[in-house]
User: Which sequence fits this backbone?
């Protein structure tokens, strides 16, 4: 790092803004999604009352992979890991009485990201909010689904087309929207090291940028709306160094590799979530301490947005009480710790600077290896990236099993649990009501118009049109997420890993 570098100066090792949090704190988000849109809406309004500055939507598995809640394949999964959204009506209920021109919303959705974004836009229009005033983030990062999460639908090539279509559409119609959140979080949750998280995330980012440039998009325009999503794990100093290295690497790549001249296109703006895989079901109060350490590393590392996991998430969806404590953890760091008064306060530390350099060097070597394979898509299709992560995950588990890696309360300092924590339960009555409402919704709509708009979408998918306007028309005609996804399946096919 050059001695003269200051926060807000290229290559932004010390932060993307000169004063960082001195004028404005990071966006405090809490990820949430429950059995129904009604219950989730209640939680969002509670969180807003408690002081969150941004919402973060968790969707259930059928929604993530493009099936309606009443599809037979969805049985048993509706509302289990997030909110079920099948129709525009569900989305309207989800954001009832929440002013979308005043709230920043992050949606963790990938394969069906264009559909959920279209629903969000349609809800905003019904609220009278112009798309120019919408701000938030759609994850829209399909490559890490093939690597780590598995909620893909289509093969890589048409999936990348959908990503580009979102880039292009939002550039014209939703200019304040972050069109992708290139995610290292799930890569780390799958078992990668910090250096692998850094390398594989940035390699995926390179693939998205190159794909968009090849399609004729301007890097100085779409590049300014790219964002990242990183994990904050337990190794406090390593995590701070990782965030610093990410900014420096991305700025240099955008400037030197892609010839970006707009400084905003060089900024590695990122959301952080504390490490879900670090939470233990044993002695769950210990998770509060883990989350606090991780959250502090994210703030000291210069995050733009933060979610703190709740103490009980190793066991179930978080309770209201646990969520409040998780949010208060961020607020205490923000308002009581004094940390926000000093941009990159660890700069100049021998340990931090060396760790930043070492992580950058290791990540660069991995990216160079991916480049030699032909890029991230080729490396993913060959299984190389997945195998590298699997090896690291195995090594870590071996260390835990042999007690070389101590997990307090799990493999050392254990106690017999005597108190059963109160957990959030899945409301089966809400699931039943949701399915009944969806069936009625399909009966009441204009099904001729549904068929007409779906046919137009299919024709467009068979050609090179940007699909976002056609998906938006389908959503407004009350086509469901499953119906839209099935049309795209019929054209693109489904991905099956070899």
Assistant:
């Amino acid at each position: 790092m050059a001695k003269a570098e200051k926060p807000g100066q290229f290559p932004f090792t010390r932060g993307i803004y000169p004063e960082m949090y001195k004028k404005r704190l990071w966006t405090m988000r809490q990820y949430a999604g429950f059995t129904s849109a009604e219950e989730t809406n209640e939680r969002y309004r509670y969180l807003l009352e408690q002081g969150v500055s941004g919402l973060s939507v968790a969707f259930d598995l059928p929604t993530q992979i493009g099936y309606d809640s009443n599809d037979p394949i969805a049985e048993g999964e509706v509302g289990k890991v997030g909110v079920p959204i099948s129709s525009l009506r569900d989305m309207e209920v989800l954001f009832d009485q929440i002013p979308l021109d005043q709230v920043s919303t992050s949606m963790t959705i990938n394969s069906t990201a264009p559909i959920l974004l279209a629903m969000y836009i349609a809800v905003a229009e019904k609220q009278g909010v112009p798309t120019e005033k919408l701000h938030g983030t759609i994850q829209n990062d399909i490559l890490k689904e093939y690597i780590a999460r598995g909620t893909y639908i289509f093969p890589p090539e048409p999936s990348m087309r959908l990503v580009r279509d979102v880039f292009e559409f939002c550039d014209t119609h939703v200019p304040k929207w972050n069109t992708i959140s290139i995610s290292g979080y799930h890569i780390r949750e799958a078992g990668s090291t910090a250096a692998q998280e850094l390398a594989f995330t940035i390699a995926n980012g390179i693939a998205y940028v190159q794909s968009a440039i090849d399609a004729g998009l301007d890097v100085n325009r779409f590049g300014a709306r790219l964002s990242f999503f990183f994990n904050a794990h337990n190794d406090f100093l390593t995590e701070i160094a990782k965030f610093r290295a990410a900014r420096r690497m991305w700025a240099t790549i955008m400037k030197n590799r892609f010839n970006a001249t707009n400084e905003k296109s060089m900024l590695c703006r990122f959301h952080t979530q504390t490490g879900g895989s670090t939470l233990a079901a044993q002695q769950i109060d210990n998770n509060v301490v883990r989350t606090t350490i991780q959250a502090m590393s994210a703030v000291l590392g210069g995050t733009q947005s933060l979610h703190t996991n709740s103490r009980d998430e190793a066991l179930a969806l978080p309770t209201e009480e646990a969520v409040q404590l998780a949010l208060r953890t961020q607020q205490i760091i923000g308002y009581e710790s004094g940390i926000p008064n000093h941009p990159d306060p660890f700069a100049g530390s021998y340990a931090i600077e060396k760790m930043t350099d070492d992580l950058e060097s290791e990540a660069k070597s991995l990216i160079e290896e991916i480049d030699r394979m032909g890029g991230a898509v080729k490396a993913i299709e060959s299984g190389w990236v997945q195998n590298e992560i699997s090896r690291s995950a195995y090594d870590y588990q071996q260390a835990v099993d042999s007690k070389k890696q101590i997990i307090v309360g799990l493999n050392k300092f254990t106690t017999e649990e005597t108190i059963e924590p109160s957990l959030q339960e899945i409301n089966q009555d809400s699931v039943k009501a949701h399915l009944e409402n969806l069936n009625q919704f399909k009966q009441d709509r204009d099904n001729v118009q549904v068929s007409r708009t779906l046919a137009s979408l299919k024709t467009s998918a068979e050609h090179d049109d940007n699909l976002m306007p056609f998906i938006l028309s389908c959503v407004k005609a009350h086509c469901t997420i499953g119906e839209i996804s099935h049309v795209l399946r019929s054209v693109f096919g489904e991905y099956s890993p070899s």
